[in-house]
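question for whoever is on the cluster today: can someone run the full assembly for these? two chains, 634 residues total. i dont have access anymore since they changed the login thing
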Amino acid sequence: MPERRGVLGVFAHLDDAVRAIEAARAEGFVPRAFAPTPRHELEEALGEPESGVRVFTLAGALTGTAAGTALAVWTSLNWPLIVGGKEIVAMPAYSVIMFETTILIGALVTVVGLLALARLPRLLPVTKVPPHPRLTEDRFGVFLPAGEAERERAIALLRAHGAEEVIADA
Amino acid sequence: MARVLRSIFHPDVADYGQVDRDVLRLLTPIGPGYRALLAVCAALVLAWAAAVGYQVVLAFGVTGLTNPAGWGVDITNFVFWVGIAHAGTLVSAILFLFRAPWRQSVYRLAEAMTVFAVLTAGLFPLIHIGRLWFAYWLLPLPSQRHLWPNFRSPLLWDVFAVSTYLTVSTIFFYIGLIPDIAAARDRTTVPWRKRLYRVLALGWRGSGREWKNFTRAYTYLAAFATPLVLSVHSVVSWDFAVSIVPGWHTTIFAPYFVAGAILSGVAMVITIAIPLRQIFGFQAYFTELHFDRLAKLVLLTSLIVGYAYGTEYFMAWYSGELYERSVFWDRVTGDYWWAGWSMILLNAVVPQLLWIKKVRRNLRALFLISLLINIGMWWERFVIIVPSLSHSYEPWKFLNYRWGTEFWWTIGAFGWFFLLLLLFLRVLPGVAIAELKEILPPPLRGAPAPAATTAVEEEGHARA
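^ ran it for u. tokens below:
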């Protein structure tokens, strides 16, 4: 569970927010960012490892292929009626089923991965600082997890980088 | 010097805040025209339900479905609506992977259209099986007789393809909506909306962790949706192509159907987007440039469709096959000549006007052309299905088709589709808020660094 107590700085400009994140990391904070739209600048500044969704996607897709193959092959063998001297297991025809289940289960597991890794649905607030409504509109947020001791330093850092509003948890 | 950049696609959109204000205006109360339209759609849906109920009680004799044209307009409607769906996935997933910066403002609308069109299409096979309550037989469920569906049948492939398409496009649609619902949640003051959005937004706050995983998952979903959309209409086409009916049994069907699907779907996007732009004053979002790009897509797919028509006729002639020749000759000279010619004229000839830039940017002309294509594409599906079945092999099998209750299903389907679309536009953000902000230049205190400027300009921005 990441630290939920701390200080939120609200920035009107993306470059200010990016510089605040860089400075905070240099000072030993582990900043978190909030933005109304995905920005690579923020992601690079945060320097977090690559998202793990791709593992879910690959696992889901391979499971889907296996499941589709198994379903079509097993049900055919379960009622082995030979028609026109054709093979019971007709792989060219089953490739369509295999393809569709690959996509279906791959997509479903990707969503599971997204929800698990992004911690959604979120029932508890992300931070002790109440959610700032403009962070989904046109402001960028930088949250510095900080206890009593570091609070003043965090506030000063955010102010120095041009935060138009600095909110500490109550 | 703040904000020196403007998006070339949205020069009139100044900043992020304006996007929220403009898009969420869709969700504020509007005039009685909306209610009237909703009532018309609801009435059509009721007529549809009544016709289906009548058929369920009195059985299939009340329809025009009989031998030889047993697929009638049920399957015409099914293919038509699956086709309409395709443009949405093209715009939302394929153009996403291609990083086309003009997709952002129209994609939500197109994607909603996809979901609702598949929901419409899916009802037709269910009605068409006659005994609706046995629809679950289509699924591979264990039974006491160990009977399983036949996985070699294209009809079963279709069950898998269409249900996968519905599931995946709904997921893709909803995932894309989450950040925008969160934006709506934070802006709205209406209590029921606030409650609804709070639930649907899943607690989205736009944190770095959320965005990082969201953008990756979204890309993978787009990568799944892209081959899926191409597969769905291919599988639908194989419902026809795998059977040995003259006029159906050709290898060109899969690409021909996919191109036709995108043609009809993009035309539908244009048909819906133009009135919407006028009613809600969305000129800053649906610009002439957007319609120009959409019109080029229409032109491209129309050329492919026209080429496919030509190939079909050429192959019928070149094969020397009596029955094949007879069917194709019948399409333009037989009892259904009017349907055959309207398909050729409306889908392959009329869209050629879009070579002219002035036509592409004249919204009245474009609206009219898109409407004609919608009509033409419905008739194309009809021409593929009905005349082929009514005119196959032996003359004793020739019998023309006359619709019964299917008339109401056909009309009702439009009511159902537009009912869903109208409700959607009033409940959820109809234009992608977060993605539009992505292509707007971000608010910067300093001037953009030279490297950043180049990247931004590549994304479709220009110095104002």
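summary bc i know u wont read the tokens: The beta strands of chain A are 6-11, 32-34, 140-145, 165-168. The first helix of chain A runs from residue 14 to 26.
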